Amino acid sequence: MAEGDNSLHSLFASGETLYNSIENSDLASSDIKYQEDVRRALECFSKMEAYLGNLTSKLIEGERLDILKRARQYHEQFLRNVELHEILTKEDRDYMEQASNDLTKNAAKTREIKIARYKRKIALEKEIKELEQQFETLGERIDENIKRKHVLKLVELFIQKSLDELASIKQETELLEKMRMTLNQGIEQKKTDELYKADSRLRNPNGPLLSKEGRPLQPFIITNKREAIQKEVFRPGWRLPTMTVDEYLQQEMERGNIISGGGKIPEKKEIDDNDESAIDAATYKAREMDEFKDANPRGWGNRMGKG
What we know:
- Pfam families: TAP42 (PF04177).
- By secondary structure, the chain is mainly α.
- Helix content is 67%, strand content 0%.
- It is built from ten helices and no strands.
- Helix 1 packs antiparallel against helix 2, helix 3 (49-56) runs parallel beside helix 7 and helix 5 (90-101) packs parallel to helix 7 (144-203).
- The longest helix has 60 residues, at 144-203.
- The N and C termini lie far apart (142 Å).
């Protein structure tokens, strides 16, 4: 085996050991040492999408949606590669199609599929562990068929992990997007409420200028009223005229309160003594007025209940 192959094999072996320790670690994902191990493992598997996808989803630094997006891309690329090499089984291909299109609506059927896939995953891990024990026992005398079987079982195991990871990433992404949408709606609602409060304060100018914390509640102007107050104090006790009589009359005339114009009072038309019809009309009019005065004596109107 060439020296380059030895270094590559040792790098993969150290990365595999580190990956297994991460998978079986009791540390929280937010632990500093845990995150350092994840970054070191990522450097070991720089070209292996199956490991990269699984490790990337364990990172916590940075925008979570971006991390999930990168992890999903790694898993999808890995699944495309195994499908291209015809390693992907029909069962896994059907499951991928159902998961991507949300075709599985029956809860009982979904549960059965999950249980079957979990049992399959446990069986694969058991087989891989047995094969690795043979590596330790036989050492360099290990058969190539066993090595090939070990690699195929690893690929099959990571297919199951990638499918599970994709489902988990999809759920988490949907949840984070809903949270972001809710947060944005809350921010917009808060802005709307603040604008409404500001508008309410403007519509209520008699309200307080400052809150209990000293924050302005409505706009106000700071002015110097010393001179105005001084003028109000040092002045006569009676009201002084503000304009002359001529100015007042001019103002009233502009307002239309003074009627100007006119002429001489028209003289009463004299009745011609020879005009009998005019004399009769005047006589009848005088009689009617006399009759009206007799029928309606002065003060005969509303007597305020005095009879």
